[in-house]
Amino acid sequence: xxxxxxxxxxxxxxxxxxxxxxxxxxxxxxxxxxxxxxxxxxxxxxxxxxxxxxxxxxxxxxxxxxxxxxxxxxxxxxxxxxxxxxxxxxxxxxxxxxxxxxxxxxxxxxxxxxxxxxxxxxxxxxxxxxxxxxxxxxxxxxxxxxxxxxxxxxxxxxxxxxxxxxxxxxxxxxxxxxxxxxxxxxxxxxxxxxxxxxxxxxxxxxxxxxxxxxxxxxxxxxxxxxxxxxxxxxxxxxxxxxxxxxxxxxxxxxxxxxxxxxxxxxxxxxxxxxxxxxxxxxxxxxxxxxxxxxxxxx
Length: 298
Known about the structure:
Elements: E1 7-11, E2 14-19, E3 25-31, E4 65-70, H1 83-88, H2 96-99, E5 104-108, E6 112-116, E7 125-133, E8 139-147, E9 153-163, E10 168-172, E11 178-182, E12 188-189, E13 193-194, E14 199-202, E15 213-220, E16 226-230, E17 234-239, E18 255-262, E19 269-275, E20 279-281, E21 286-297
Parallel strand pairs: 12-15
Antiparallel strand pairs: 1-2, 2-3, 4-9, 5-6, 6-7, 7-8, 8-21, 9-19, 9-20, 10-14, 10-16, 11-15, 13-14, 15-18, 16-17, 17-21, 18-19
């Protein structure tokens, strides 16, 4: 059953659901009537209940596919609307004007939608999204940022797609291009992983009794620009551009993977992240970064 809060596009048996009023977030992906293949929170889809968007808006975990900017460590240092976050160089939450604000539908057909977000006084840009389900059932997602401030801005485009944390993933990369950063504290221990045959893969595992969670983040420069995610019913392949390593901001990875599990299954999370090249934009300048998703039956 389709949600009244979601706008759907479809082609060749693949359906994608988007909520323009929540940052143009993709919240639904299905092939041939399958359950939702990406992780989302339907209880939050009612956008009339979302918080007011301003410089003090806290993070809301809609999940799905969103677009952030990189590097994360600079999210709040270039703005003047929240002096506290500027002074502390806060790296959380992400810019609410980009991921939670109302996006305007410019055009929509049965198989494609074109969205425009508002200007952000935090990041100094606007985001435009073009999402289409192609005749072969692949999904094209392009995000474009435009410098709509009155001074130069420098960012990368950060595609972030969430899956259930028990899904397996793999990406081809040599060991010297893989950096695993576990979250280690009294509550959290690392996520097991494999680098066999020059492929990185998390091995999603529930935490042991003495910990409440497992969490690790991995920064990867891949050999091939593709990530494969195995859901219970399908494989989802995420394709992107293999930028030169020198074009990626040193604080980020071209590919970043975050895997988190808890004893409570509903909180398990796998984030599949692609960063574009880092670019300085003059006033009015625009650039884009795309992903293509290919979905196949298991």
